[in-house]
Design brief:
This protein has about 550 residues and is α/β, with parallel strands linked by helices. It has 19 helices and 17 strands. About 40% of the residues lie in helices and about 15% in strands.
Amino acid sequence: MWKKRWGILLVLIIVLTGVLLFIGMKRGSMPEKADDSKPAPTPIQEEESENLETIIQRIIDSAQEGKVPNVSFIVGETDRQEVQQEWGKPQQVADIADGIYEDYLQQAVTIGYQDAQAFDIRSFHANIQKIHLADIKNSMGEPTEVRYYQDQTANQIILVYQVNPAYQLKWILPKPTEIDINPSVHHISVYTKLKDEVAEMIEQMSLDEKIGQMMFAGVSGIKLQQETTSLIQDFKIGGVILYANNLETPHQSVTLINDLMRANVDNRLPIFIGTDQEGGTVVRLPGPLKNFPSNNAIGNVNQPEFSFEVGKLLGQQLKAFGFNLNFSPVLDVNSNPNNPVIGNRSFSDNPDIVSQLGVQTMKGLESQQVIPVIKHFPGHGDTTVDSHLELPKVTKSLDDLNKLELIPFKTAIENGADVVMVAHILLPMIDQKYPSSMSKEIITNILREQIGFDGVVMTDDMTMKAITNHYDIGQAAVDSVKAGNDIILIAHGFSSVTSAIKEIKAAVNNGEIAEARINDSVRRIIQLKQKYKIENIEVTTVDIDKLNNDIEKALNTYMK
């Protein structure tokens, strides 16, 4: 009986289940009835649309101020130093045709510089990458210009909008395809064309002014002479070198330097005022000023901190007297103990010690806004003749130089050296005809192209007998410019300076030297003066006691 009931119950359950399944299938196959009385709700889509409009408007507003959103830097105004003070060093750096680009990955920003000035700020922020091609055109209309870019890794379309006379806003996206006709933004760029103030200045300068800037002249006497005034005011020379015979006392030296600056006051550019204050046996500053030990003695101590301190204190001394340039440090490797001109002026016979200590001395000078001049390229340490008296000859190949003499110069250049002085040395295995100071092979091919130096190159003193015993000084100056020098140093003789100026001008006028070549040198000279913020501000008095106390403190610390 119970079995029969359970059987009936089981049949009923099966039938009921089948009915319910049939009804469910029928309901699932019918379309859901739409409510025509109100539109289908799309709150998420509306919120996204509003956000995109807000993001795009913020980008436009920022671009009109020369910025990208959430970044305070302004194209055309911000410089690299300001960026690195706020954000530190970049994670990646790329040197390409139109500038140097530095990546800040945490900020999702790349900044492009020309001569350390920001001209292109790019943002890769995630919010920007939500925007699509159609969104841009809906908000901003048709662009001012459309460009395309393609390489091995990218195929892009660039929409350029001139948001105001000063700034462009660029939207960079993958190029639309049949598969993706509405691509999303890869990044944006806010760009400005930098005003090339240096080019404008050069364009306004006469040929006489430009050639004058390439002259670094020695002067006679302990007072401002008429010939010196003429060199500054009539020939517009770019720099003056002073020697010990120009500098008798601190008061007299300050007076002379102030007079030099006053003579230059109406000229377009401030004037370099330099000397050889190496320390040790080569010092020019007068008065009861304590001296440093020789570079060789500093090399024996071999502490980079000491070398930096020496450079810093040398810079303080020079700045106190009114100098803005120092023909130091010596980066020659003292590889020949019979060398009559370098000797203890070198840090060591080990190129690594010379490199490390020389660079630190250079940086110490730079810290005081005094321009260091590294010398004597490509290396004077293996000569047996003093170039003041005759032309030295070194029978070394470029391969030989790369293994020894060039090491400190390469290191200093890698560490930002701004000026290189080229020695008067004949290297017949490299250039049989010209000494290094007049050799295109050594200056242009090796120093500029192989080593990659783009700063100011200058000759050693062209009135040394290494040159005057073999060349007319005017023609030597012409050959030196053709070789790649930016500055010709003529330390003695008013007529020697004027002869060099006259011959260089004639070479330009007859087409032997292109004026564009002169302009290249003048650009480097102007940029150097701007970088160090050279201003001919008169000096009052020199506090010898303070300078001596600082030197004594350093010597007691490192020379115990």
